[in-house]
Amino acid sequence: KLGNATAKAELGRATWKYFHTVMARFPEKPTEDQQEALRSYIFLFARLYPCGECAEHFQQHLNKYPPQVSSRKSAAGWACFIHNEVNAMLEKPEFDCTNLGAFYDCGCAEDEKAEKK
Ligand code: FAD
Description:
This protein is mostly helical. It has helices at 5-24, 32-48, 52-64, 72-89, 109-116. The relative contact order is 0.14.
């Protein structure tokens, strides 16, 4: 079955945006509980992703490259790496993970201020 490639791509773009923004906002020094929350979230995210074929591929990637949750930097770097694995599978160009910087901005500067208080 052909499916709807446009809808699949749109869902993918929206999801990646959200996924990378979650990583960009993960604590720099997460507690054990926060690390476990992110790990569980990623495995459940992979199981429940609405495109079944994508979910299956992504779970295989996860088994090969388990989530890195020890810090914001490692989580964001891991997510960039795993997205590049999907890019490679789909014959898309590799994204330069050293350029992540402020690319994924949640627009929630107010929260950051509150955290520093
Ligand atoms: P996308 O890959 O959607 O990326 C969006 C934007 O993110 C890019 O324009 C770029 O600015 C940025 N970006 C690109 N690479 C990275 C990176 N490594 N790190 C950070 N930012 C980056 N489609 C299928 O056809 N088959 C599948 O099996 C499949 N599996 C998927 C699994 C998951 C978990 C997700 C979220 C999506 C999957 N998709 C799959 C959809 C696919 O990955 C793309 O989202 C879709 O093809 C649209 O591609 P795009 O070229 O617009 O860029």
